[in-house]
Specification:
15% strand, eleven-stranded mixed beta sheet, alpha/beta, 41% helix, 521 residues, seven-stranded parallel beta sheet, 22 helices
Amino acid sequence: MIPLFTSSQVRQADNYAIKNLGIPGIVLMENASLSIFNAIKNQFPELDKIDTIGLIAGKGNNAGDGFATIRHFINNGFQVKVVYLAGEPELKGDALTNFNILKKLIRKYPDSSIKKYNSNADIKLLEDCTLILDALLGTGAHGALREPYNIIINELNKFDSLKVAIDLPTGLDLQTATGEIIFDADLTVTLAEYKRGLFYEKGYTYTGKVVKGSIGIGGEFFDKLNVRDYLIEPEDAYSGLPPKFLDNYKYSSGKVLVIAGSGNLPGASFFASNSAIKIGAGAVVLAFPESIKILAQSNVDSVIVQSYSDNGKEIFTSENISELEKRINWADVIAVGPGLGREPETLKAINKLFEMFPNKKFVIDADAVIALKKPNYKKVNLRDKILTPHHQEFAALLDISLKELKSDLLKYGRKFTKETGAFLVLKGAPTIIFNNKDEIFINSSGNPGMAKFGMGDVLTGTLAGILAQSKLIESSLISGVYIHSLSADLLMREKTIYGFTASDVLNNLPFTIKFLNDSII
């Protein structure tokens, strides 16, 4: 796991370095600037000394980091162009020191320039730069950008230059990973430690590749901090895979019951049940309407279809629960929801299912999530049950707007799991896992090609299949979420983000596990 820190925790590191370690602030800034310069050179080895490096700088220490970094480019033979919003007396301390050094140095290089921002025309000076450094705002900035910052960022985002953000892209609120107008970075060099807001929602979208820069204090300070947010690594996914023993047999290898599918939406149930068997579950049963049973039998692989009476309605109702009672008690895990539909009879049946079997392990997806829409989820025991909604479904569950949910995604996820004791797998780019101990795990695999029908159903089956084998909820979720997305990433070796489907991801699951096994061992 890679620990992720809040911006306020990272800001405390400067005070610790100065007060406890006796490192002057100007030294911290120099360490930061050298690490930024080296990170850029490592990430963009094609940069040549004929290239021009641009800098847009604001009014605080973030600007100071930018002034010091651009100095290293000058000293290494690059031409530079600098546009700054503040000089004396607005700049203070170490930022002012580095600004004054840069002003004197740049005079010795007639092909380079430095100019104070007065209007949008000044931003045009950076348009022909090969790479532009963003040092406008630091981690203390919150809320929407005001003028002239919003105008400047809008203009910079139109340029074809490579774009690098120092610490964070201007316009990104690190506390909530929100923002309306954000610097669209190809690379973000985050200083001291990885910050949580860079890895989800707008942070995930606008940071580009994130690498860690150093202020020169080591890890001692951060090792003592309370961390509750993590980025999932391949090793975490591998360690969550259930062991296989020589004396395993089909019923000891995980029993999954999938209650999914209807006449209108049959396909989701096939994705879910086939995924559970492909990920290694020993016995998977799909409960399906009797009147269309033949449809299921021709679309599943090594999955048993158990029909229930539907009187030609092609839906799941409360009367079917008693028919499935023995199979429900038999199953280690029950996956419920994909394609069940939202007819009132079905939604009522789903709630009754949870009420009748409060101690069973459930993976709850799609229409089953909607069945629990507030206040229903407060009436049933959701402790240690797994909900897997996408953002719109989660907003509907909480009875709030999608906009309100996205204003502080982690707050709402944490509140829900604290209230219910459930585990929440919030599907998105990236998917975020919330446990019921106030911790979150952000997925680090996946690509835009996954935005297609059926992907969530494959995830439901994958999670149910792994959990049925291991019985350990948290590690199963971490492993399942990562492997599901890694399967899509591995498809990119032969396909593009346009060309692969949920079926491709499903069928690639066994090869993904082999890849993970070969990579880790």
